[in-house]
Amino acid sequence: MELYSDIKKVQQMVSNLHQQGETIGFVPTMGYLHEGHERLIQRARQENDYVILSIFVNPLQFGENEDLDHYPRDEKHDRAIAERNGVDMIFFPTVDTMYPNALSVEMTVTRRADVLCGRSRPGHFEGVVTVLAKLFNICRPTRAYFGMKDAQQIAVVDALIEDYNFPVKLVPVPTVREQDGLAKSSRNVNLTDKEREEAPAIQEALQKGREMVQQGIKNPLTIKNEIRKFLESKTHGKIDYIELLSYPKLQDVHHIEGQVILATAVYYEKARLIDNVVFDADGQLAYG
Amino acid sequence: MELYSDIKKVQQMVSNLHQQGETIGFVPTMGYLHEGHERLIQRARQENDYVILSIFVNPLQFGENEDLDHYPRDEKHDRAIAERNGVDMIFFPTVDTMYPNALSVEMTVTRRADVLCGRSRPGHFEGVVTVLAKLFNICRPTRAYFGMKDAQQIAVVDALIEDYNFPVKLVPVPTVREQDGLAKSSRNVNLTDKEREEAPAIQEALQKGREMVQQGIKNPLTIKNEIRKFLESKTHGKIDYIELLSYPKLQDVHHIEGQVILATAVYYEKARLIDNVVFDADGQLAYG
C-alpha cells in the first residue's frame, strides 16, 4: 500500500495507471473509518484494478457551529483498515495542500441541497462538491463509492458529475445494518438501552412506507402521516423530519410516479439518527 | 479529421488516447475562426499527438445585452481551417447536449473577474469557467491553448485549473499582430482609414509603459498617466480604461514587484479595441 500526500505525484501515478488501462476505484473519506467505509472499500476492491482511499477532513464542509477541531482522527487505525481491505493507495493531503490560496472560482449548490439534512447545514454541500471536484481531478477515478446512508450527498454528487461531465461512475453502496435493521452509525453507542431497543422502528417505519406504495398508495402525505403515527407509537425519539421526495432530484412530489426517497431523522437524548429508503413507483428498492 | 457531437463518444475516444499514452492539445472556440485561432491550433499541433478543436457558442457567457442570436457562424469555413491546420477532431455539441438540465451546481468567479473588461460583463466569466470545466472533463486535454489577447480570460482559466486541480497545462499564445503592431481583430475592419492609421498607437503606448518599467519606474500611477497622455496625443479614440495589475491575480499594485499586466481598451466610432502586455518587474515580456 502506498501513501501519498502530494497532488502532482498522485496525478502522475494516476496518469500511468490510465496508460496501463487500469480501472481506478475511489473512496473519499474524512478518516476514522468504520464498517460503512469498509463496505465501500470492499466494493471498490471487487470492481477495480486499483483502489484509492482519500482521507481528508475537509474544513469547507463544516458549518460554523460544527466542530472541525474535534473531528475524530485515528491515522494508525485507518491505515490498518485500508491495508486489510486491499487499498492500493491512501491519499492524505494537508489542508494547505488542498487549499493553498483562497478560491477564485467558487461552487454553489442551487438545487438538491435545501431539503432533508441539508436544510440545517447551510454551506455543507458547497464544501462537499468543491472538495470532490478537486479529488476527482486529482485521482481521476473510473468509479467513486458513496454510502446510501447519506442519500442526499449522493444526489448532490450525482448533480456535480452530470452538470460538469466528470468521467466517473457514481456507485451508491447500500447502508450497513445491524441484525435488527438499525442502520449502523458511530452515534448508536450514544443511545440508552431503551432507545437502542426502540431505534429499529426507524427502518421498520420506512419499509412500511415502501409497502404502502407497493399496495398502490401513491399520495406522499398519506404515507408520511402513517409513518409518523407508526414512529410515534414505537419510539420516544422526537421526529426531526419525515420527507418523501423525487430521487435524485429531491423535489416535492404530489403523486409517486418515478423514483423517490423516503427519509427521516429522529432525535434521541444524545444522538440524532437518520435513515432512508429509495424505491420506484412500484415500491421496488433502487439499491441492494 | 473526425467530427463529434456526442459527449460520451468523445470521452470514450479520449480514454483510448490516454491508454495509448497520446498527448492531447485542446483549442476551445466559439467558431467563426480567424487567424488568432489558427495560431492556437498550429501551436497545439506542434506540441501534441492529437488535437481537438471545440466549436460551441456558449449561451452562458453572453450577457443580457450581448447578442447571442446574431453571433456569427460559418461551419464550412471553420472545418476548412481546422482541416488545413491538422486538427484531428472537431467537437461541436448542441446547447441541449451541453446543458440538458438547469445546473444544480453553479460556479461563481469571485476574484480576477471584476476588473478590466470583466467589469462591464457581469456573469461573463461564470459562463466561461462553467463551459471550460465541462469541456476539460469531456476532452481531458494535456494542454489547452488560449490567446493572450484576452489575458483576463487566461487569468480566470488559470484560477479554475489551480483551484480545482484540473490535470491540464494552460498555454497562453501571444497575440497575432499586423505589421505595424496593431493586434489582429475581426473588429479592425470597422475602423475608418484615419482610425486604422492611429490604432497602432495602442500597442506603442503599452510598450512605452513597459520601457518605463525597464528604466526603473515602478509606480503604476506614473506609468498609466504617461500612457494616457501618449494615447491622447496619438489617437482620437476614447480611452475606456488603462489598468496595471498583478498577473495572473489581477490585483491592484502600488509598486511593481512581480509579474504585471498593462492593459487598455479604446473606443473608436464603430469598434472597441483592446490590447495588453504582460511583463515582470524588470520589464521582461512574459509571453512571446
Automatic annotation (TrEMBL), chains A, B:
Chain segments annotated as coiled-coil in the UniProt record: none
Binding positions for ATP per the UniProt entry: 30-37, 147-150, 176, 184-187
Subunit composition and interactions: Homodimer.
Top EC group: ligase
Pathway annotation: Cofactor biosynthesis; (R)-pantothenate biosynthesis; (R)-pantothenate from (R)-pantoate and beta-alanine: step 1/1
Chain positions recorded as beta-alanine binding sites: Q61
Protein name as it appears in the record: Pantothenate synthetase
Subcellular location: Cytoplasm
Main location: cytoplasm
Note: The reaction proceeds by a bi uni uni bi ping pong mechanism.
UniProt-listed Enzyme Commission number(s): 6.3.2.1
Example GO molecular function: ATP binding
Entry-linked NCBIfam families: cyt_tran_rel, panC
UniProt: (R)-pantoate binding residues: Q61, Q153
General function of this protein: Catalyzes the condensation of pantoate with beta-alanine in an ATP-dependent reaction via a pantoyl-adenylate intermediate.
Pfam assignment, any one: Pantoate_ligase
Keyword Plastid assigned: no
Catalytic reactions on record: (R)-pantoate + beta-alanine + ATP = (R)-pantothenate + AMP + diphosphate + H(+)
